[in-house]
Amino acid sequence: MRTYFYKILIVCFGLFVSLGVNAQAVLTTDSVLSESDSLIHVLRTQVQELQLQRIMMQERLAETGRGDSVRKAERMARIDSLRTITPGAPLVIEGDTLLVLYARKGGVLAEKRVEQAYHIILSQGKRMTMFADSVYVYESDFFSDIMAGNDVILSVTDLDGLWQNTTRQELAAKYAEVIKTKIVEIHEEYGLRQKLYGLMWVAIIIVVQTLLIRFTLWLYRRWRYRLLRRVMRWDIPLRIRDYEVLNVRRRGLLFLFFYRLLRIFLILIQLLISVPLLFYVFPETKTFTFTILGYIWNPFVDIVMSVIGYLPNLFKIIVIIICFRYIVKAIRYLLNEVATGKLKINGFYADWAQPTFLILRLLLYSFMFVMIWPLLPSSNSEIFQGVSVFIGVIVSLGSTSIVGNVMAGLVMTYMRPFKEGDFIRFGEVEGFVLEKTALVTRVRTRKNEVITIPNSNLMSAQTSNFTFAAENFGIIVHTKVTIGYDMKHELIENLLLASAKATHHLLQKPLPYVRVTALDDFYVEYEINAFTHSTDKLSDIYSELHQNILDHFHEAGVEIMSPHIFAHRDNLELQIPKNEK
User: Nearest-CA neighbor of 513 among 525, 531, 536?
Assistant: First the structure.
């Protein structure tokens, strides 16, 4: 008997191997896996049936002297041991396990039998009308059919009874009672009476919701203008310095806007309660209730959990910000002391304090941002990194000139070519420095024209600082005159020196001096040079010096020669003013 059993196993295994090889040659990898699983399942079922048959044959060949109770106990022990290693097919409806099948019915597997019974039980229970007596057991020679009207719910075989250590008829009666109870439960939930109750609750919910919406709109219209008048009576305008952010009119408009939002919010809250209730009254749509509530509740829970999970990193960020804030305050205090002259550092000028503070603050905040970056939510996501790179590229491409001006401003700050209030010359522009920023420098000319010059232009061209030279060396005020060869140079030099002496704000120490700068074809060119410390009055000094030169030369009868007039002269009189009598 045992040899026959092993032979059957070997034949089945050979059949399984041959089928697996053929399937691998024909089907793709996915189909091979599914086919192999089904074949394994079929083979396991066949082995279980062979083991059952072996148990039954051993029981028949056993000694006749043994009692029925002993044989029954041995059979139960063998089946129980076989059941522990054999996975059955449970019939589960709405979380309730009704029964477990282990054996096939002909060519139908246990899983297929359970699936067919599942659908029939649900269809019978969800019918509008149902009678408990319609579930009964129909006995035949080989099967016990559990019927619901004309539909066969489940056919119980002798093997099913053997697996449960009972007879087929007893097992069918037991299963019929369990199935009948479950069908009645399902019918009580899905039947006609429940549908009528559901329709009644739907009508009640719709009526109540309609009344609530009308009541909300009535309250809105009733209290809108009353509350508006109270708000308008508040004579407390919101100001930021001289700008009035909220006057009476804006306050009223803002109140109406939020009042409308409150109305919409209340109606939405009512709908969020009533609409899920409409779905909840019917079992078929009960799952939609949780789906709709999930659309609202799940995002809220996700946000709250994300915030709670982010709290440790948030505390780290707060600590980092506080530390860097106090470091910046300490640096600001030290550099303010340097700027006011209370603290002196060799080689560090007072006007360097403010730009140095700005640079250090920028570096510290950049370092702080680098430390905070990994702690930000979604900082490691590819989208976050891609957006950051995109913004960086845009900023770098669009800020080339800006960065150039900023760097030029920093270089000029530490080179100290000029400071605010100095009188400078840049190309053809002369004026007083009004403001130095990181990007531009503003200059006020003698005509009170304010000219804005980019710092990069100042770095690339020559700049003259008259104020610095006047304070340390003195500015030389100079002008030229052309005199004919018929005049002695001693007379001209004396007249020029007398003109410089009569001009205000010109220094007598060092003494003014005269230079002969050119001997042209028709005239001699003289240049008077005098020192001054008053750079803010250069225009007035030049004007007064020119007036004094004219006065002294005219009094001495000396003509300031022009080469054009000299070249075309034909017995003309001297070109000097006549004495007025």
Answer: 531
Amino acid identity at 456 = S
Largest CA distance in the chain: 177
Q: How far is CA 269 from CA 53, 209, 212, in A?
A: 66, 11, 11
- CA 523 distance to own-chain centroid: 79
413-446 confidence digits (pLDDT tens) = 777 788 888 888 888 888 888 888 878 889 988 8
Q: How many whole angstroms from its chain centre is CA 410?
A: 33
d(CA 112, CA 490): 134
Amino acid symbol at 1: M
Location of structure tokens 């990898």: 29
Top mean-pLDDT range of 25-34, 124-133, 210-219: 210-219
Helix (H, G, I), strand (E, B) or coil at 346: coil
Q: Give the integer Cα–Cα distance in Å for 387 and 381.
A: 10
Closest CA to 231 of 254, 265, 198, 210: 254
pLDDT band (50, 70, 90) for residue 55: low
Q: How far apart are CA 217 and CA 220, in angstroms?
A: 5
**CA dihedral in degrees (163, 169, 170, 173; nearest 10)?**
110
Q: Are the beta carbons of 182 and 121 closer than 8 angstroms?
A: yes
Neighbour count for residue 115 (Cβ, 10 Å): 14
At residue 81, the 3 state secondary structure works out as helix
Comparing CA positions, the residue from 105, 98, 109 lying closest to residue 44 is 109
CA distance 130 to 191: 8
d(CA 145, CA 156): 6
Nearest residue to 452 via CA among 463, 444, 441: 441
pLDDT band for position 497 (cuts 50, 70, 90): very high
CA–CA separation, 256 vs 236, rounded Å? 18
Examine the pLDDT at 83 and tell me if it is beyond 60. yes
Q: Which of the four pLDDT bands, split at 50, 70 and 90, describes residue 362?
A: confident
E-strand stretches of 497-544: 513-519, 524-532
Peptide bond into 299 cis (omega under 30): no
Q: Where are the beta strands (DSSP E) in 387-535?
A: 423-426, 429-436, 440-445, 450-454, 463-465, 475-483, 513-519, 524-532
CA distances from 209 to 198, 214, 216 (A): 16, 9, 10
What is d(CA 2, CA 187) in angstroms, rounded to the nearest whole number? 51
Helix (H) / strand (E) element for 276: namely: helix 248-280
Indicate the residue type of 31. S
What pTM does this model have? 0.49
Minimum mean pLDDT range among 14-28, 175-189, 332-346, 354-368: 14-28
Between the CA of residue 248 and those of 132, 232, 254, 259, 413, what are the distances in Å? 75, 6, 10, 16, 49
> Mutual orientation of helices 29-61 and 2-26 as an angle, nearest 10°?
170
